[in-house]
Amino acid sequence: MIDIPHNWAGNTTFGAARLHYPETVAQVQDLVTRHRKLKVIGARHSFTDIADSPEELISLDRFEPTVTVDATRRTVTFAGGVRYEHLTRELHRAGFALHNMASLPHITVAGACSTGTHGSGDGNGSLPTAISAMEIVTGTGDVVHLSRERDGERFRGAAVGLGGLGVITQLTLDILPAFDMRQDVYENLPLAQVEDHVDTIFAEAYSVSLFTDWRNQRINQSWIKRCVTDATRSEAAPMWFGATLATSQRDPVGLLADECTAQLGIPGPWHERLPHFRMGYMPERGQELQSEYMVPREYAVAAIRAIDGLRDHVAPHLQMGEIRTIAADDLWMSPFYQRASVALHFTWKPDVPAVMRLLPTIEAELAPLGGRPHWGKLFTLSAWQLDALYPKLPDFRTLLREYDPEGKFRNRFLDRYIFGGN
User: Largest CB tally within 10 Å, which of 2, 101, 257, 318?
Assistant: First the structure.
């Protein structure tokens, strides 16, 4: 048995017999050439079996974590095993920033991008939209370089690759000048205010997250992340759409406020405000499960009403839900492909049978709205349902077969959701 048998949440047991730690691209090529079935694991934060393999697992944790900033081109290049926590600190030291981050900074950049992980903000694309170039060791053992500028549609197909193209050994991301942010939290926002002012609320700041337990018609906490400018340095308003300004540090679930990024309007660097949890916080195992569905932005109110209508089913199994917005992109397998979206996130209590029984009910309610699942979180949609949601999925299957003709990187997840009998 490998020395990392479980994912972060403990709900998936890896079936691989061996875990390899290559240190160079040549060593990755050798592993791919010699073995029949392989997958790459990062921070193990996916709640699905997307990274599982029946034979070999690869970790890039021992690759040299050098971060190379090109100030002229405004890009940063680094190895596939680098985590956001390391990357963002190095970037900030060089005076640069990323446009967006996920809630937790300990996840790997390659893993987050490969699953379409997103962060939030009306004007902010998902994390893989920052990729401008990538290096992949394919299923044939060849090293392939793709760039947004040179490879067009092929690049857009590979950016959210679901681990099926090969091993991402290097990434290059677009960057921007570093900036400061502040974060304020408001409590008890009436759900009616969200329905009446949904566009205004989400346009209020660089990033807005609405946390609700779906027990009452209210948002428990609204996290407002603003860039620091002369106009935003003043004291936060005591009320915001009927919600009350929090006067002490908060946690969405009410347990780990000290582990959350600084609030109370205290200015700080972008990488210490964009995530919900602070740098250095590395949970060993999550006592939770997660699901998330993305619907077109124009259906935001309908989606909120749909979940509110299921409150008696959802609330007993829920730790906390979150509602966010994300800009549209052109990446084939991104949940935000060609549509600005509202994301409905669920952090569940760690009861796998109960959650898996409930998900089809949620999915049925969101189906008329085109709800697409997060690839790294739990869902039960079938391959034919996903085919209808992702217009480029047939092209993606073709790309996978081209880069991995022997199916070395195919696993149960890809067979179940992507190939599905094709």
Answer: 101
Total Cβ atoms within 10 A of residue 216? 14
For the domain that residue 289 is a member of, what is the CATH number?
A: 3.30.70.2520
Give the SS3 label for residue 230: helix
Is 216 in the same domain as 238? yes
Report the pLDDT value the prediction gives residue 254, as an integer from 0 to 100: 72
Mean pLDDT calculated for residue range 195-205: 97
Q: Do 295 and 369 contact (CB within 8 A), yes or no?
A: yes
Whether 282 shows a pLDDT value over 90: the answer reads no
Residue 87 belongs to a domain with what CATH number? 3.30.465.10
Task: State yes or no: pLDDT of 421 exceeds 60.
Answer: no
Query: How many domains, in total, are found in the chain?
Result: 2
- Given CA atoms 266, 272, 275, 276 in this order, what sign does their dihedral have? negative
CA distance 182 to 236: 10
Compute how many other C-beta atoms are within 10 angstroms of the C-beta atom of residue 135. 19
Identify which of 79, 91, 99, 172 has the alpha carbon closest to the alpha carbon of residue 132: 172
Q: Is the pLDDT assigned to residue 26 strictly greater than 70?
A: yes
Burial 75-107 (b: 16+ CB within 10 A, else e): bbbbbbbbbbbbbbbbbbeeebbbbbbbbbbbb
Residue, of 232 and 379, whose pLDDT is higher: 379
